[in-house]
């Protein structure tokens, strides 16, 4: 439900890691699968940390290269 609403607001949403998180969490909840839910959150958390690190690195090094 939320996924389709977000897709209507932003047609590119289905290609984002946030969309994948919502889809994975929804599937885990439908299946009452706590491990699947936890894995989805861990995967998203690892990706977002990586994005933050890359953005920080590019900001720090922008004047050097």
Write up what this structure looks like:
The protein has 65 residues and is mostly helical. It is 77% helix and 0% strand. The protein contains three helices and no strands. Helix 2 (17-30) packs antiparallel against helix 3. The longest helix is centred in the C-terminal third of the chain and has 28 residues, at 34-61. The radius of gyration is 16 Å and the shape is flat. It starts with a helix and ends with a helix. The mean pLDDT is 81.
Write a compact overview of the structure shown.
The chain is mainly alpha-helical. Helix 2 runs antiparallel to helix 3.
Summarize the topology.
Elements: H1 2-9, H2 17-30, H3 34-61
Terminal Cα span: 45 Å
How many distinct helices?
3
Structural class: mainly alpha
Largest sheet: none
Rg is: 16 Å
Which strand-content bin applies to the residues?
under 5%
Search tags:
mainly alpha, about 60 residues, flat, about 75% helix
């Amino acid at each position: 439900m939320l996924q389709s609403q977000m897709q209507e607001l932003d047609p590119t949403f289905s290609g984002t890691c946030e969309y994948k998180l919502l889809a994975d969490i929804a599937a885990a909840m439908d299946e009452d699968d706590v491990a699947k839910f936890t894995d989805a959150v861990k995967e998203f958390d690892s990706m977002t940390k990586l994005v933050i690190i890359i953005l920080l690195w590019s900001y720090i090094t922008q004047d050097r290269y």
